[in-house]
Amino acid sequence: MPKLTAVFNVTLPAPIVMRSDGKPVVVSVMIDDFNVLIKLIPDSRSRSKKHKERLWTVACNAVSIWVSRDEKVMPPRVIPKSDGTLDLTIRIPYFNKRGTDYKRIALQVLNNAIMFFKYELKQPQLKAIDEHTDEINNPKWIDDRGEEIRTGMYVVTSKGIFGQRNEYGVIKFENKHKRNLQSSILKTKMTKLHHEILSDAQSSAFEGNIRRAVLELAIACEVFIKHTLFGGSDISALAFEALEDKRIVSVRVLDMIDIGGVGVPNGSFKKYDKKAYQDIDYIFRARNKVAHRGNPVFRDEKGNLQKVDAKLLRQWWISVDKLFSWAS
């Protein structure tokens, strides 16, 4: 049977750091009935090495993935018209039928490789490639003789706009924000820690990483509350930390926003917004399950086991915004 190959040349969101002799590194695998090659292409334009090292340290900015499979039939032959032009559209149904499987395999191999570099080799700037990336949707097709097959199609993709429904705390820019934007441009400010962590939680949520979003959301709440209640007084903060270190006191965040809320103009958060308070409670219950077992679940007030999904996470985010407004 004739072999059909799809070649996906993908630019990485961040470089892979590697030692190289200047040649591409090729890894081959079999997945289902596909033969797959992934080629790491070193960029030798910027390289370095120590005096006694043999190999150069270089960046790999792009990878090439070759996905091949034996097909019963090859694309239909295109016969030139009388004026010499070619109508390639007759091939579109052929590639539409098969392209999804080739793309799925390429994306699986690419993102599994990226996760290896990100977590096993601890290269944190790498991120998974989105299925809507143009390079994933427009491979180069090659026949079993190594010749390119023109498809007569080009796929244009469009990513959704993150935060278009104000989900996960996103605030849409409007004219009323121009003055604040101007002030921010003129004066460099240090970002508060809870804002940084909350932003990380947003990124995790939009990427669909629910368990990490839960963990970071809970940390952002804890940091915000402790900085709010103790940030204005070094003496009280040091005293509280000393008592905690000696295990003389152990205060939950929920206790701080309820009982400790007497020091906030709006009083107890539990009385301020009972439903939001309950959501904060659930966030920390889910946080504990994520920390202990890596699973975003929690038990509600009735003892029922609940799994955190995107819908519930969006609801919790509204309650977190209320918490921040309550204490600000």
Write structural notes for this entry.
The chain is an alpha+beta fold and 328 residues long. The chain folds into two domains: 3-149, no CATH class; 167-327, no CATH class. Helix content is 42%, strand content 20%. It is built from ten helices and eight strands. The protein has helices at residues 92-120, 134-137, 178-186, 193-206, 210-230, 234-245, 253-258, 269-272, 274-293, 310-327, and strands spanning 3-20, 25-31, 34-48, 56-70, 140-142, 148-149, 297-299, 305-307. The strands form two sheets. A six-stranded antiparallel β-sheet has the order 2-3-4-1-5-6. Strands 7-8 form a two-stranded antiparallel ribbon. Strand 3 and strand 4 (56-70) form a beta hairpin. The longest helix is centred in the N-terminal third of the chain and has 29 residues, at 92-120. The protein starts with a strand and ends with a helix. 24% of the residues are buried.
